[in-house]
């Protein structure tokens, strides 16, 4: 099974994860530690006790420059998430023009994902070193340059190098965008910024297949990359207007946890390759997968050693000792697998069974974005007034129900049969992911918010990669099982098999007048129908497995900690 066409975990990293904690990852804390933004706290910009008291009575509202900065960050996150899914939709055409086989072409997606997941935990540290404004502007510029390289590529090597560069630049855009919300918006307006961010980021993976399919069909696949130029120019302009220039902090570069950084880079990048390419390489039957797994284990071991030797580890794994926070991470990991799993399964079903192209499949995927538009006006107030445990449980149940609606698929199922499940899935995503982000922030102390956000982002992306790897194995094995069982049941000697062969042979004979050829065609068609039915049964089982995994997260939602300090009065 080829998982290259999925919406990358990164892309859904974008999915409703609009909360402050995500951005903060190491960044929220990092920006504050570096003095960026100059905010005295969520409620005001100064450290004056009298000012704090005044702000308590009359909360400060965000300025125009604050909202411009939020818009710049959100647009950057949209750019990063859009570029993953838009490229996947054009992958067949890209492979054809650069002379890459189907297996080689998967590295176009894998190259992006492996560099993106490395940058996610490094973004906070680099923000401390360079300053938020400078770091984001550099990312926008480099993202554009590597996009131009991809668009002008004439070989697989050029394309992979460009995609790796895109991944490094794009991997920083989502967490830094979330950090802008964390540091620039007063606490009572954060839910509004989070909802806006969640909506924009959710659109990336949904719009990608539609835009990519349209550009591929009506223009050229190269425009999937050239499209980034005007968007990046807009981001740079907004950053210049919304963020102030900050000094560099080179001491943060030299005092970094280099053992952890090297281990993280080696461990996560090779682990991503193992998860993305393992199924195609037949897992540990491949020497490449074996060696990459060993290298990944060494890198992860270096990260673990750094937990005890570094003054400030690049990834603070000790936070997982917090029961409330560990519950958030487990749920996010599983929901990440569900989000990315569905974003792969549904287009695959529509393409292989219903015969849809990328643009048609993208239109069906867009249905899950409709609830986000409808919920955005009141979702911030809902998060402020309703226990987040209730919202998360309701979201998980909606997501579970959407999967259960898709377990009775047939070979005649088409796009409109997924309308209700897609709408319900969209509701579940918004209700679960946004409060989960709040819960992750509430579960830890303020000084650990940045580290908590980093782990949150990593968990979601790794959940997507692990989930897709497991789904790939499940689909291959269950399809082979169902195919074998159907072939045992429907043989040329069985009454059912004979009836099918006779009907098909008569139809082909009427067209050709050649009985031998008609019999061969009838046999081939029966084999194709058996293979199709085996695939349909497997898709149904896979949706069922995803639903059960999400349902098992419901008890953990009861352990979540309710955030405090989010008043609805400012909405």
SSE layout and pairings?
Blueprint: H1 9-13, H2 21-34, H3 49-57, H4 64-89, H5 91-98, H6 102-130, H7 132-151, H8 156-171, H9 173-184, H10 190-218, H11 223-226, H12 228-242, H13 250-254, H14 258-277, H15 287-309, H16 323-352, H17 358-365, H18 370-375, H19 379-385, H20 388-404, H21 419-442, H22 449-489, H23 495-512, H24 515-551, H25 554-557
Write out key terms for the chains shown:
571 residues; mainly alpha; Growth Hormone, Chain: A; 75% helix; disordered C terminus
Describe what this molecule looks like in 3D.
It is built from 25 helices and no strands. The protein is globular and about 85 Å long.
CATH architecture of the largest domain: Up-down Bundle
Order of helices and strands: HHHHHHHHHHHHHHHHHHHHHHHHH
Within the CATH hierarchy, at the fold level, what is the topology of the largest domain?
Answer: Growth Hormone, Chain: A
**Kindly, what is the distance between the CA atoms of the first and last residues, rounded to a whole number of angstroms?**
47 Å
How much is the average pLDDT?
79
The coarse silhouette is globular
- The number of helical elements comes to 25
Largest sheet: none
The overall number of domains is 3
Give the helix proportion (percent range): over 70%
- Point out poorly predicted stretches: 1-56, 567-571
CATH class of the largest domain: Mainly Alpha
Summary, kept brief:
The protein is an all-alpha fold and 571 residues long.
